[in-house]
């Protein structure tokens, strides 16, 4: 195991770069690295084969992270930092004691990766917690990729990374300005969730074939130009006295209805 | 319509009380009123028959809220406040321009209200956005009540109110210390979500009868004493490479699977 470096000043260039990454979306977009906080996210990244460049541990807490530190590649720098420096590196209010800097890896969005799988396209979903939860749900449901249209939260933002709980390491994700090529290349059907009365109830749809799902922002919904491309507008039947679901909840209900129908087709003891 | 009052000082006692309500959980718990921000939540509360005591509008934005102001009961005070005072009253970073104070109304948690309906009991769900999304989902699914066990976010917290989007006005909600009476009084089955391999896949469960659902915190899950009461531990089948869903997503998948099975029973053109 390589020896420890020490940082005791918040003016250290490495510390300043990470602080800037945490606070500036425009800086994050052009830098080819990202920062993960907490041993859960770090472990998920390591398990997915991501290579950390440097790990920063708050002094006195090294023993707690023995398992993670053991799993680091020899090329990864180990840096022990003072408590005030660690607070500068942490994005959370209750810092976890460990932060790592990784070279950013994009999972390729190729037709091969996506053949035979669902795609999700989000329109204007701003709230980072929702975007993160949607990425996590999509990864769990085995979706091929998530495309973030205009107005969506930056998927590398610290809050999105935290809420996604490692989805970034197993799921191709791309921010796109124009979904036309994706509409043009599609092989399956396109479904858009909408509150319209004429929309088809989710449970009346056959979802066994791969589809492209469109989900819109709270209130505004999916923009009309995209709705026009959809083969069907879909609504989730709601017996209770609410108009709509949170977008992340709606995504979970739709994607897992597809999971259910496919399991049912495979005859795995599913209740109809 | 009653005439406008004016407040131009943040030291006004009404303003100070609202600020304290926004910032102090212990104060919120003992005060019999609550604060709602934005015309969407206000309208939902008015539609549900809640009576505002006072409405505070940022000066210059009165015309934007004409419809809401028109719908106010004559007993409700209308207060025009300066922009700095409004910023003191608002919990959000992009203030909506309207805030109202309501007498708090608890929907009764009686056996009659709950007969023949699902119940949801949460264990240690701390994150306000998750608790709010769960309340919204439960209300949409027609659940009878949501019980918040120890360690859950305060359901009157501003972030929970915002995320629940009006669920508080249509759904009985109670914070409880001890679920034993609820377990003892139950008529249907008790299901707990768990990651255990021996858990029953959700889609193999018959969910047409009312049930009590237990959902636990991220990581820790439902506490063992409560799990022991469950008739079945349930897992959501996940074809993708993730260990678990966000708790609010898991609630949505489970409760809407019950919605689907009941619609299917009612033969409303549901795909099996």
Q: How would you characterize the overall build of this protein?
A:
Two copies of one chain form a homodimer. Chain A is α/β, with parallel strands linked by helices and 272 residues long. Chain A has two domains: 4-103, 2-Layer Sandwich (60s Ribosomal Protein L30, Chain: A), CATH 3.30.1330.30; 111-265, Alpha/beta knot. The first copy, chain A, contains eleven helices and twelve strands. In chain A, the strands form two sheets. In chain A, strands 8-7-6-11-9-12-10 form a seven-stranded parallel β-sheet, covered by helices on one side. In chain A, helix 7 (128-140) runs parallel beside helix 11. The first copy, chain A, starts with a strand and ends in a 7-residue tail after the last helix. Chains A and B meet through helix 7 and helix 11 of A and helix 7 and helix 11 of B. Chains A, B: InterPro entries: Alpha/beta_knot_MTases (IPR029028), MRM3-like_sub_bind (IPR053888), Ribosomal_eL30-like_sf (IPR029064), rRNA_Methyltransferase (IPR051259), SpoU_MeTrfase (IPR001537), SpoU_subst-bd (IPR013123), tRNA_m1G_MTases_N (IPR029026). Chains A, B: Pfam families: MRM3-like_sub_bind, SpoU_methylase. Chains A, B: It comes from Tepidiphilus thermophilus. Chains A, B: This is tRNA G18 (Ribose-2'-O)-methylase SpoU.
């Amino acid at each position: 195991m390589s020896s420890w470096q020490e940082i005791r000043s918040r003016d250290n260039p490495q510390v300043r770069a990470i602080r800037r990454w945490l606070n500036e979306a425009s800086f994050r977009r052009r830098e080819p690295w990202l920062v993960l906080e907490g041993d859960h996210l770090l472990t998920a990244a390591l398990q997915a084969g991501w290579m950390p460049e440097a790990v920063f541990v708050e002094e006195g807490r090294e023993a707690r992270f023995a398992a993670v530190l053991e799993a680091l590649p020899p090329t990864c720098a180990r840096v022990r930092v003072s408590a005030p420096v660690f607070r500068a590196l942490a994005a959370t209010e209750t810092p976890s004691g460990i932060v790592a800097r990784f070279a950013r890896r994009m999972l390729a969005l190729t037709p091969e990766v996506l053949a035979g799988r669902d795609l999700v396209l989000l329109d204007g979903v701003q709230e980072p917690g929702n975007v993160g939860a949607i990425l996590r749900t999509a990864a769990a449901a085995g979706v091929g990729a998530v495309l973030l249209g205009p107005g969506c939260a930056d998927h590398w933002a610290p809050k999105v990374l935290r809420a996604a709980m490692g989805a970034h390491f197993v799921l191709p994700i791309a921010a796109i300005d124009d979904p036309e090529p994706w509409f043009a290349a599609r092989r399956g059907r396109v479904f858009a969730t909408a509150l319209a009365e004429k929309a088809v109830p989710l449970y009346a749809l056959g979802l066994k074939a791969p589809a492209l799902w469109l989900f819109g922002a709270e209130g505004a919904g999916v923009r009309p130009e995209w709705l026009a491309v959809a083969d069907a507008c879909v609504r989730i039947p709601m017996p209770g006295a609410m108009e709509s679901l949170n977008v992340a909840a709606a995504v979970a209900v739709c994607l897992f209805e597809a999971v259910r129908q496919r399991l049912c087709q495979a005859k795995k003891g599913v209740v109809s």
